[in-house]
Amino acid sequence: MSNQPRHIAIIMDGNGRWAEKRGKSRTAGHEQGAETVRAVTTFCARHSEIDRLSLYAFSTENWKRPKIEVEFLMKLLERYLKSERSTYLEGNIRFEPIGDLSMFSASLRKVIDDVQNATSGCSGLIQSLALNYGGRDEIVRAVNSLRENGTITVEMLGSALDCTHDIDLLIRTGGDHRLSNFLLWQAAYAELFFTDTLWPEFGADELETIIKKFKTVERRFGGLN
Ligand code: IPE
Ligand code: IPE
Ligand code: MG
Predict the structure, then answer these.
(1) Residue 9's beta-bridge partner residues?
(2) List 3, 51, 62, 114, catalytic entry
(3) Which domains does the chain have, with CATH numbers?
(4) Long-range Cβ contact pairs of 216-220 (< 8 A, separation 24 or more)
(5) Is position 13 annotated as part of the catalytic site?
(6) 67-90 and 106-118 are packed helices; what angle lies between their axes, rounded to 10 degrees?
(7) Between 67-90 and 26-45, two packed helices, what is the crossing angle to 10 degrees?
(8) Which residue from 42, 66, 127, 161 has the fewest beta carbons nearer than 10 Å?
């Protein structure tokens, strides 16, 4: 049987370069990137073999960016969640944020909570947005939550993480070949695909091509086939 892309994770990179190439501000790239989020999420929701889509939207390191860009991203996120609430519900998509949300403003947290609660009964795709997310931060928070439990096992740590599901297929757009602190634990046996396409130009067609290739890979998980 071919591989099933049950959990797809994407490092959505290249918004800034997409905009700069067009003589636009970096924020215009983020705006366009949000359109790709919608398109890719809708595509995944229509494919029953895909259960989970985890998207890297804002890293624990992205606070280093200029204040104006960070503020724009926060506003864009709030606006996106408000306007897409109906897309989630109509598409039977559950919204499940991962990351340390305590750093966000009260109003943004309220919108995040609202969409998460409103979609908690949706049984189609689970779309996980990684917000103020860092793989190391996630692991450290999980270890701290288990401090009282004595010796920690792989299973215990794995189930104390924000994201408790291994990744099948991990994609990074934008041409760089690195994880940038995304889902370090969950990517242990992920198939990695890198594309030069900038995130605003990525779409369902390219995702479909990658999934086709993914299905032909021999996944051994350390064993022999
Ligand atoms: C990814 O695009 C989106 C975020 C990190 C929020 P970038 O903003 O990193 O775009 P480039 O890599 O500078 O082109
Ligand atoms: C990774 O992209 C983070 C997100 C896509 C949210 P970056 O643009 O922040 O990564 P680096 O700095 O190139 O590694
Ligand atoms: Mg980048």
Answers:
(1) 54, 170
(2) 62
(3) 7-134+163-214 (3.40.1180.10)
(4) 216/2, 216/3, 217/3, 217/191, 219/3, 219/189, 219/191
(5) yes
(6) 20
(7) 20
(8) 66
- Plot region of 180 (φ>0 → left; ψ -120 to 50 → alpha; else → beta): left
Q: What is the C-alpha end-to-end distance of the chain, expressed in Å? A: 12
**Residue indicated by tokens 């990351």:** 99
Q: What is the DSSP letter of 190?
A: P
134 lines ligand 1 (CB under 6 A): no
Q: Is 62 a catalytic residue?
A: yes
Sign, CA dihedral 187-193-199-205, equals: negative
Does this model's pTM top 0.90? My answer is yes
pLDDT in tens, 78-119: 999 999 999 999 999 999 999 999 999 999 999 999 999 999
Three-state DSSP at 74 gives helix
The candidate with the shortest Cα–Cα distance to 187, out of 56, 59, 60, is: 56
pLDDT of residue 225: 83
CA 184 to chain centroid, in Å, comes to 13
With a 6 Å cutoff on the Cβ, whether 91 touches ligand 1 is no
**CA distance linking residue 131 with residue 99, whole number of Å:** 5
Give every residue of the chain whose pLDDT is below 50, as ranges: none
Cα separation, 70 vs 9, whole angstroms: 23
CA gap 159, 157 in Å, rounded? 5
